[in-house]
Write a sequence for this structure.
């Protein structure tokens, strides 16, 4: 970080004291994250913020660790997903870019306490901010000499049946997922990172997402009116996360990828005008859940587990319903489960007057072929497909965590 940047960020003594204190805490917390051996022993550290719940109270997620925050982290209310093309000229400039992103993310996530705020838009400790950096397959072309280090399964996102992909909202060299409890914190981070990296990376596309409040309780609803995010792997279980989310030293991937994860982003537009004409009972059969409660069709409460073994012909839960295809709950399909972390988007009206509402579908997994692509294949041609239209997104590999104060994003990838 240049002197002018340091000066701009540290203007008064009180704030400087705060930042020094926070730096000490961050450094101490990082002890033990220094080696790959330590990786296996790490718990899923980002599930809950350091102090209390983010929802309306003070909370800050640690920046350092074996894995990046923003993956197993309890979902914040707002998200910005931005894909960038890298403009750096060579490997040295790319390394500088990654170091700058690390330094800025470290500062931004540390936040400032309300009493220290000088600039109203600055993220505060209670914003529960996470900044999660991924790389796309195009970064491994011939610009930076990285072709031999590409994560084995990282390809450009293929076009699936029923996709209507707009090339201007697909792919990218980098993906940044910025999540926080308040939308101004997300925007502040975008502005800061754009300013600090000017000329080294250029935004390619952006999707802003948010969660609706729970109505009346439980999981929040997307714009199809159903509760979404009811079932997900257990992020508190490091065994489960090691099985489904994190790339491991034994995954047959380049060594530097251990602790990272494959991220799939899909911008999926809802055909709400058509959907809203479908009677509720038919909508429930399409999803396999009750609209009001979120319960599976053979259950009563949101958290009840469906038992498909008692319904082999799909009389209660149609065989082609969304949840039954996505997760048939068989021993053979257990390995294809993935961690969903999606957000709603509202893009206003299209030029033809139709509503541009949908989902920024986001998921994380250890193996994008075994998990997302396999699940997507099972969902191909499902009744829901008539009412949704995937228009963009990409495949990315989210880098392993920044281990400590001396580490930086992509150090394992870029060190010679
Ligand atoms: C390839 C993976 C998935 C895509 C793409 C996807 C799109 C999608 N989903 C909804 C709405 C709901 N999905 C629900 C459950 C659910 N969806 C997936 C996967 C994909 N969804 C999974 C693995 C599951 C869990 C299935 C289970 O274990 O039972 C639900 C039900 C509530 C829930 O469990 O979260 C809803 C509602 C939309 C609208 C959509 C694309 C437009
Ligand atoms: Fe789904």
């Amino acid at each position: 970080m240049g002197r002018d940047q340091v000066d701009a960020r540290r203007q008064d003594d009180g704030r400087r004291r705060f930042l020094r204190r926070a730096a000490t805490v961050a450094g101490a917390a990082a002890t033990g994250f220094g080696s790959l051996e330590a990786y296996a022993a790490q718990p899923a550290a980002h599930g809950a913020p350091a102090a209390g719940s983010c929802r309306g109270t003070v909370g800050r997620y640690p920046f350092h660790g074996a894995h990046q925050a923003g993956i197993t982290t309890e979902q914040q209310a707002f998200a910005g997903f931005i894909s960038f093309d890298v403009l750096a000229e060579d490997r040295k400039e790319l390394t500088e870019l990654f170091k700058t992103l690390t330094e800025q993310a470290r500062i931004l996530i540390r936040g400032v306490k309300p009493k220290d705020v000088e600039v109203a838009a600055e993220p505060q400790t209670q914003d529960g901010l996470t900044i999660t950096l991924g790389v796309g397959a195009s970064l491994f072309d011939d610009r930076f000499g990285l072709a031999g280090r590409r994560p084995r399964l990282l390809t450009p996102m293929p076009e699936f049946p029923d996709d209507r992909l707009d090339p201007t909202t697909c792919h990218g060299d980098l993906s940044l997922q910025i999540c926080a409890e308040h939308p101004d914190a997300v925007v502040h981070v975008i502005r800061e990172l754009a300013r600090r990296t000017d000329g080294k990376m250029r935004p390619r596309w952006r999707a802003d997402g948010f969660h609706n409040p729970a109505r009346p309780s439980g999981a929040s609803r997307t714009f199809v009116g159903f509760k979404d995010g009811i079932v997900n792997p257990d992020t508190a279980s490091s065994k489960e996360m090691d099985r489904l989310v994190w790339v491991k030293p034994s995954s047959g991937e380049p060594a530097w990828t251990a602790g990272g994860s494959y991220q799939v982003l899909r911008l999926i537009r809802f055909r709400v005008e058509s959907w809203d004409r479908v009677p509720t009972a038919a909508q429930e059969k399409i999803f396999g859940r009750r609209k009001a409660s979120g319960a599976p069709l053979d259950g009563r409460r949101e958290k009840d587990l469906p038992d498909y073994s008692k319904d082999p012909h799909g009389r209660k839960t149609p065989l082609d319903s969304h949840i039954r295809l996505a997760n048939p709950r068989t021993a053979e399909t257990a390995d294809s489960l993935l961690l969903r972390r999606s957000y709603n988007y509202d893009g206003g009206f299209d030029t033809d007057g139709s509503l541009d509402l949908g989902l920024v579908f986001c998921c994380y997994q250890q193996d994008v072929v075994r998990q997302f692509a396999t699940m997507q294949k099972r969902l191909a041609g499902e009744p829901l497909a008539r009412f949704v239209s995937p228009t963009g997104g990409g495949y990315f590999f989210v880098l392993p965590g920044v281990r400590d104060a001396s580490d930086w994003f992509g150090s394992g990838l870029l060190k010679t």
